[in-house]
Amino acid sequence: MATWNADKPAVGNQVSADVPDIEENFQELHDVIEQITNGTLGTTAPSAFAVDAISIYKTIYLPVKSFLPTTTNGAAALANVELATNDVQIEYVAFDNGTEELIGCSMPMPEDWNRSTIKAKFFWIPATGCTEADTVEWEISAVAVSNDAAIDATFGTPRAVSDAVTAGVEADLHVTSATAAITVGGTPALGDYVHFKVSRNVSGTDDMTEDAWLLGVWIQYLADEQVSSW
User: Fold this and answer.
1) How far is 210 from 141, CA to CA, in rounded Å?
2) Domains and CATH numbers, the chain
3) CA-to-CA distance for 91 and 215, rounded, in angstroms?
4) What pLDDT is recorded for position 4?
5) Which tens digits make up the pLDDT trace of 38-69?
């Protein structure tokens, strides 16, 4: 029959194994205290303290007023309306279902963007007269332009997402699901100017005969780049 003494863990051996780690921790603590005492904490060269980048998803909302109708096949001009009951004021751009109409927006992407694919969601409202379950399809593409590069650059492959009119029809806010991954055209680099092009893709699954009012576009990107001071 085993006794307690025979089954107990080798405490002495474990402590001996941990001593080097304990000594290292105490040495690091000593170094920090010393730096606080002599006023050098925070003045050590950054290379001495390596910080790993953390990958997280972030979003940017582009209200429709940040877009402009294109000269060729442009959507309607920015408009606004006050809703009747609670005086909610909204700005929108109307897209009809007859031709593919376009709007564009440009901005530098945040410096922590990892320069890979992005995704988008669309906020919109159907115009009066639509029918529940009608479908509207939105499309977006993008291209990144670097300093000293041609601005009139080729966009990446457009990505479309369809959305069905809800039971509340024009009284309801509609938010699409996310697009598939959007490859930004060009060779995205830090500080690039990114053009976005948005349209109502009437040649796809879109079957709503009334106008679709776009309120804005929500962009999601992966951030894992460390941002340096300018």
Assistant:
1) 24
2) 9-50 (no CATH), 56-223 (2.60.120.260)
3) 6
4) 46
5) 776 665 554 444 555 678 999 999 999 999 99
Could you write out the DSSP letters of every residue in 35-94?
Answer: HHHHT-TT-S-GGGS------EEEEEEEEGGG-EE-SSSB-PPPEEEE-TTT--EEEEEE
C-alpha triplet 69, 201, 77: angle, nearest 5°: 20
- From 48, 19, 20, select the one nearest 35 (Cα to Cα): 48
Per the rule left: phi > 0, alpha: psi between -120 and 50, beta: everything else, 186 is left
Locus of tokens 């709503």: 208
pLDDT confidence of residue 55: 85
How far CA 116 is from CA of 32, 95, 122, 190, 219, in Å, comes to: 39, 30, 20, 12, 13
List of residues 6+ apart from 122 with CB closer than 8 A: 138, 161, 163, 175, 176, 198, 214, 216, 217, 218
Q: Which tens digit of pLDDT belongs to each residue from 118-141?
A: 999 999 999 999 999 999 999 999
Q: Rounded to the nearest 5 degrees, what angle is found at the Cα of 52, between the Cα atoms of 49 and 53?
A: 135
